[in-house]
Amino acid sequence: MGRKFFVGGNWKCNGTGEEVKKIVSTLNAGEVPSTDVVEVVVSPPFVFLPLVKNTLRPDFHVAAQNCWVKKGGAFTGEISAEMLVNLDIPWVILGHSERRLLLNESNEFVGDKVAYALSKGLKVIACVGETLEQRESGSTMEVVAAQTRAIADKVSNWANVVLAYEPVWAIGTGKVATPAQAQEVRDTFLLIEFMFISINWTLICCFVSL
C-alpha cells in the first residue's frame, strides 16, 4: 500500500514563544484534505516541541529537527531519541543539509542516526540532496545515491522513513528547482530501489523550510 501525500515544515532555529503560538493558530485554522489523503508534520525548535504538540490540531504531527546517534550521556547540547520518545514526539528530521554541511555529518553518520532513531520507535524524515557545485559538476545522481545507500546499509525496513529531497543548490542562490528536476532525482531513487533496496516509493514529499 502506498504512502499518502506528505507535507513537512521545518521551522529551523527561528521563533519566539509568541510567534510560535501565532503560527500554530494559523495552522489550526487551515483547511486540508482528509488525513486519508495527506499527512502534515511541522518541526519547531526543540524548546517549543511541548508547546506545539499540546496546542496543534490533532490531525497534524510534530517532528524534532535532530537527535543524537546513540543513547544519551556526556554529549553536551544534544537531544537523544529516548528524550523525544518520552515527550511523545513521533517524528524526527535527520540528515538535513545544514547539518551535513555546517556540522560535517557524513553519509555514514546520518545512516547510523536514522537506524538508531528507528530502533527507538521514531519515524524519520531523512533528507538527501545536492549542492550547487555538485549539480553543476553533473554529480547529482551520484551524490543522492550515495546518501540514500548509506541509509540503506543500516536500515532494512523503510515503513517509517520518508525520504525528503532537498535541492540545496536552490536555497538562497536565486535558482529554482523545477518539478522536472525533482522528478529526475525521484527516478534515481527508483533505480536505487531496483538495484539495491526495497522502499515504499509511492509517496510524494513536499518539505518546506522557513
Automatic annotation (TrEMBL):
First-tier enzyme category under EC: isomerase
Keyword Cytoplasm assigned to the entry: answer is yes
Q: Which reaction is the catalytic activity of this chain?
A: D-glyceraldehyde 3-phosphate = dihydroxyacetone phosphate
Q: Where in the cell is it found?
A: Cytoplasm
Pathway given for this chain reads: Carbohydrate degradation; glycolysis; D-glyceraldehyde 3-phosphate from glycerone phosphate: step 1/1; Carbohydrate biosynthesis; gluconeogenesis
For this record, the Gene Ontology CC terms, alphabetical, are: cytosol
Q: What is its EC number?
A: 5.3.1.1
Q: Name one Pfam family in it.
A: TIM
Provide this UniProt record's keywords sorted from A to Z. Answer: Cytoplasm, Gluconeogenesis, Glycolysis, Isomerase
Any GO MF annotation of the entry:
triose-phosphate isomerase activity
The answer to whether the entry has keyword Cytoplasm is: yes
Give GO terms for biological process. gluconeogenesis; glyceraldehyde-3-phosphate biosynthetic process; glycerol catabolic process; glycolytic process
Q: How does it assemble?
A: Homodimer.
Q: Write out the similarity annotation.
A: Belongs to the triosephosphate isomerase family.
Q: Spell out the NCBIfam families in the cross-references.
A: tim (TIGR00419)
Its protein name is Triosephosphate isomerase, cytosolic
Source organism per entry reads: Vitis rotundifolia (Muscadine grape)
Classification lineage: Eukaryota, Viridiplantae, Streptophyta, Embryophyta, Tracheophyta
